[in-house]
User: Fold DNA poymerase III subunit delta from Helicobacter fennelliae MRY12-0050.
Amino acid sequence: MNYTGRIILTDDISEAIAKTKQGLAASDFRVFNENDPLKIKDAREIIRQAHLTSESKKTIIIAAQAFGEDAQSALLKVLEEPPNNIEFVIITKNKNALLPTIRSRMMIELDRKEKTLADFELDLYKIDLEKITHFLKANTSKASNNDGSNNDDTDTSSTNANDTKDSTTKANSAKDNSSAKASSTKTNSTKDSRIKARELVQSLLFALHKLNIKLEEDELDMFDEAIVEVDNYRKIQHTLLPLLLMVHNKIRVKQ
Assistant:
């Protein structure tokens, strides 16, 4: 089959973009939507850029955090029949973020970092609804603690009119710094929670593999969808519950 472009599956979008750009002159590539979802207006701009006349090969890198279905539908024709000298590269964390018609037209490449996953915390052959409930509560509590942040209150006093103005300025500056620090801490904590949630999903899948428990295609799709939900900040208990219930039912049938 003649593929019309590439899809790169990665854990780190920015790093995958950097690798794709290596060896290309600045005029030979264009990156779209690295930090934003792909919308219909972006699709129209991609199509416009693709049809600009060029004597040299150009690479259009589409690396959105999420892919709107309308935007993907608008891109179908140009992805299936790219103009001369145009290569499309789509970078995503999950193949299920893309329409099947796009996936079938483009070569899929894996660019995942190998890492050691911790063993899943539950014995899958002994899980029941009570253990699932306790497990989800424990991990929800951990996520909530990670997302918390403390704000420092700044108190100032003055002894005269000139000092009052100076103290007020310092107080406002201190509050701004405190707010910025709190915001940065919360952002980092949220990122840590997402990483933890992703690792839980992956370690559950790996645990099933080690136990030689085979999953049907729709069950594997559930894990792909769970990763997408984690990346879209869905709460960990809402992401893991369907997976654990599916595993629980599968184990019961096997036993």
Observations:
- Residues 148-161, 180-186 have pLDDT under 50 and may be disordered.
- Residues 5-111 form a domain with the Rossmann fold fold (CATH 3.40.50.300).
- The chain has two domains: 5-111, 117-140+189-254.
- Residues 76 and 102 are 7 Å apart (CA to CA).
